[in-house]
Amino acid sequence: MTDSEYARFCEGVEVEQRLGRLVYDRRVALGLSRTELAERAGMTRSEVSLLDTGGGNITVASLGRLAAALDADLTIGFLPRRAA
Question: How many domains does the chain have?
Fold first, then answer.
């Protein structure tokens, strides 16, 4: 694996970790178990578990259902990076 490939891999992991933390924090704030969230979102418990521990891939449609299940608005955007 080249340095640039490794850097891209790390960026992907970081995004998954941030998403997982958002899902976990919101789920806990609502007092929902993984099973309850899965039922609300039309997902399996294992899919929710994978997501809120920072793993897995999710479609935009599934993100929309997850946001609704978490009683949250989903915002997706591209923000310019700050110069280093």
Answer: 1
pLDDT band at 62 (very low <50, low <70, confident <90, very high): very high
The verdict on residue 42 lying in a domain is yes
For 4-57, how does the pLDDT look when each residue is reduced to its tens digit (9 = 90+)? 766 666 676 788 898 999 999 999 999 999 999 999 999 999 999 999 888 878
Report the CATH number at residue 59.
1.10.260.40
- Cβ atoms within 10 A of the Cβ of 57, count? 9
- 83 is a domain residue: no
Rounded Cα distance between 16 and 25, Å, is 14
DSSP, residue by residue, 2-35: -HHHHHHHHHHHHHHHHHHHHHHHHHHHTT--HH
CB 48 within 8 A of CB 38: yes
Length of the chain: 84
